[in-house]
What does this fold into?
Amino acid sequence: MTQALQIGVIGTGNIGTAHARSLAREVSGADVAWLYDADTSRATDLADEIGARLAPSVEHLVASSDAVVIASPDGLHPEQAMLCLDAQRPTLCEKPLAPTTEEAANVVAAEVDLGRRLISLGFMRRFDPGYVALKEGIPSVGRPLVVHNVHRNTSAPYGLDTALTLTNSAIHEFDINRWLLDDEYTSVQVVTGEPGPRTPDGQLDPLLVILTTRGGALVEIEVFMNAWYGYEVRCEIVASDGTLDMGDGSYITRRASRQVGHDVPELWLGRFEDAYRRQLQAWVDATLVGKTSGATAWDGLVATLSANAAVAAIGNGAVRIELPDRPALYA
Ligand code: ISE
It folds into this structure.
């Protein structure tokens, strides 16, 4: 009987708490042994709730755990990923791998120097049944020509600005469209218009992002962080012989009183709860046999590079996306 993985979770904000609770209660093969957060009060409450111990530092958590979940603020991800690589700890790093391309490239270089993949990136939509069904359905409709993506938040979390809209939120679309199409981007442009009525001053929101790919497909992303009516993610693939639309299959559509409608969650945690759990289970199962699961650090680098190219494209027309050579470690 393989002993349960003793997991350390760094960060007890929304997603760190969700991961810790899911690991403690739903995911088999793992226990949450350690928690760390700069907000010790919040971390203590969660530790008491799930029966974990409070680590006095990130370094202590990494040294004391079999495997690590990084769910801290974006800017801390690269340095904490480096700590985990130095300690040779299997790691599930929440997106983004890093806010900047340089920081993401440094993590990839460190993993290449180590000579083994330890980092799984938290692009959980790759585990979402809706996106999995989309990808599986592509052969039935021919060659993808256009992908329409909608990514709407009720309101911009934690004071998100325009750059973070792309490097923190739309980064999911930058990753999932590569995965769906098994393709790479060649250029990006960002079109801006009049902000919505609830968009904070100075923020460009909504945005339209248009990407081209090596295979000739067009990828369009509407990202709207202050949509107000609710949280909604959609994806439609228009192909040579038909279309696939990941509608709102995750919601129950209600028909009554001459109306048709469905509830819309407030947060992504509602829409992607199953995807997060599936991602965690896949990561634990892979870690138990010395492997990684889902997106890699290379995927994290490509997503961050693409997002930052989009930031550079704001107000500047199309920007070319040129990738570094893909290391053999990620072949
Ligand atoms: C958030 O950080 C997430 O990862 C969600 O999946 C995304 O939809 C949301 O826009 C981000 O802010």
